[in-house]
Amino acid sequence: LRLVAVLKAILEAEKAAVLKRDRHLPLSFHRRQEELKFSLGLQRLQHRVREIQVLLDGPAGEGPGQDGAVDPCWWDSAMQSPVAGAAPQELPTLILEAVKELEVAKQQVLKRIKIWKRQQQLAGNGAVFEENLAPLQKRCESLVEVYFQLHQQVMAASAELGAELLPRLLERFHEVLSSLVKR
């Protein structure tokens, strides 16, 4: 992690030097950087969704064996509850982080839609306009796919989330989907 931090600092310093020298980078660089940020955020979100799914499903082979024997590492020291019983406390935190990342990804998509709309307006005045909607459509489809997976997992974990947290999460989900559809 330290190596990554050092490399990141070096690359940011080089970027600052290039920006200082050229005063701006080409538009294609900014688009590529934005695409990479979105892809990374979406991958992080998909990873969170998989983590939540693992917590909901539990590890393979969890619980008593077929012969009725109890796996000693599955139970805590008091033999009162499974270690996976810690998962309900961790599950709400993971879900909240995932919803936050979903909202960040939604903002990135909405920002890109706003840019596309502005470029379309400028095209009416003769500016060059990239009419290809495929990248924007792919972003929206990827985000909605993750949205539905996460929503399904929240509904599956509704008992662990409690009566207070579940309505707030569902409201946040509704806001994400409605803002994507409206724009």
Automatic annotation (TrEMBL):
InterPro entries: STAT (IPR001217), STAT_TF_alpha (IPR013800), STAT_TF_CC (IPR015988). Residues 97-157 form the STAT transcription factor all-alpha domain. One of its GO terms (biological process) is signal transduction. GO terms for molecular function: DNA-binding transcription factor activity. It comes from the Eukaryota. Keywords: SH2 domain. Pfam families: STAT_alpha (PF01017). This is STAT6 protein. It comes from Scopus umbretta.
